[in-house]
Write a structure and sequence with these properties.
This protein is an alpha/beta fold. It has ten helices and eight strands. It is about 35% helix and about 20% strand.
Length: about 325
């Protein structure tokens, strides 16, 4: 058992219960996704109301398919629009698992948010989710019928979604792909980003049990996302290895203490700053990866989510200067 002494008690108990579900990592992804949706309904954040939620359908350029998205418009709009990619290791997650988090972020920030449901592995392996993320971005920035402000337009995501969001700005990395972004984001808002799939960081070995995200779950995600083990060394899979980060916009990064991805998040912040990217980095010492997932049972998780939304509001204003 790893040392979770500093983690808020209710988060710790909820995570321990989720981590102890028998046989979870032996489930096929299609079943795991159903479990994730049930967990979100049982322990996720309370639902807050929106002015409107509009379902969207986005065509893909790489295949004869389309993906779902939702436009969340809060009651009070302070400005800016965010394209959001959900977490889940590019294997689980979707519009429903992140619905309440997106509502919180939109409500407390006053920012319009478009949540994108890209295709998942192993049905759509690396780099298909990346291509989908860029296709969705291109469709949104080119679609004036959405009737939202595109003058201040950013990308965001949590975990694997933050990884996809960060790639939207990396023109040179996109040269390896079938699709490239037609416009760069004005800012990016990255929540405990998944930027190193090699599993070599100290925090990766430190957190093997008792959390929502453990190194064993990360190994499950990597196994299903990549087509070959050596792809962990590809800079498109592990962004911390990229030497072409200089096109990144102003960036907000949130890291949390109890997270296998903690140290690679710090490394990514340092790499961005080494490229003279304007980075705002915040670190929560009393939260774990995916803390909004236990927002119904943990008051600290709810508070931290509101703090995150207010940070988004401030960062959107800051990015406009």
């Amino acid at each position: 058992m790893c040392n979770l002494k500093g983690l808020e008690v209710k988060q710790r108990l909820a995570a321990k219960l989720l981590d102890s579900l028998p046989g979870l990592l032996t489930l096929p992804p299609s079943v795991f996704r159903k479990v994730a949706r049930v967990v979100e309904r049982l322990s996720g954040l309370p639902k807050v109301s929106m002015k409107s939620i509009t379902s969207l359908r986005i065509p893909l350029s790489t295949c004869d398919q389309s993906i779902n998205a939702r436009l969340y418009q809060p009651q009070k709009i302070s400005g800016g629009t965010l394209v959001y990619y959900h977490g889940g290791g590019c294997v689980v997650g979707g519009l429903d698992t992140h619905d309440r988090l997106i509502r919180y972020l939109a409500h407390y920030s006053g920012v319009n948010i478009i949540s994108v449901e890209y295709r998942l592995a192993p049905e759509a392996k690396f780099p298909d989710p990346i291509n989908d993320a860029i296709d969705a971005w291109n469709w949104i920035v080119s679609n004036e019928d959405l009737n939202i402000g595109l003058s201040s337009l950013g990308v965001a995501g949590d975990s694997a979604g933050a990884y996809l969001a960060a790639i939207i700005s990396l023109r040179e990395e996109q040269n390896k792909l079938a699709v490239q972004a037609v416009r760069l984001p004005d800012f990016q808002f990255l929540i405990y980003p998944m930027v190193d799939l090699r599993g070599s960081a100290n925090s990766y070995s430190e957190f093997g049990s008792g959390l929502i995200l453990t190194n064993k779950l990360m190994d499950y995600f990597v196994k299903h996302y990549l087509t070959a083990p050596e792809q962990v060394n590809d800079s498109l899979a592990s962004l911390v290895l990229s030497n072409v980060l200089s096109s990144s916009p102003k960036t907000y990064v949130l890291t949390v203490e109890y997270d296998p991805l903690r140290d690679s998040g710090f490394d990514f912040v340092n790499k961005l700053r080494g490229e003279n990217i304007d980075v705002v980095h915040e670190h929560l010492h009393d939260c774990m990866h995916a803390f909004p997932t236990v927002g119904r049972v943990s008051s600290r998780a709810r508070e931290a989510t509101v703090e995150l939304a207010l940070a988004l509001k401030d960062f959107v204003k800051y990015s406009q200067n």
